[in-house]
Give the backbone structure.
Amino acid sequence: MVLAVGERVSHDTFGLGTVVAVAGEGDKSEATIDFGDYGQKRLLLRYAPVEKL
C-alpha cells in the first residue's frame, strides 16, 4: 500500500487517522499516522491493518 501525507485512513484498533509522514519503500515502508485521542503511531504498512478512505 502506498500512502501520502494528508491522506485519511482507518485502522482496526485506532480508528480514523491522518497520515503525517511516510518513510521507506516497498516492504520497509512505514507511516506516521495521527489517530487523535490515540496519538501518533508509526506503523510498518506491510503489517498494519490500515485501509485508505
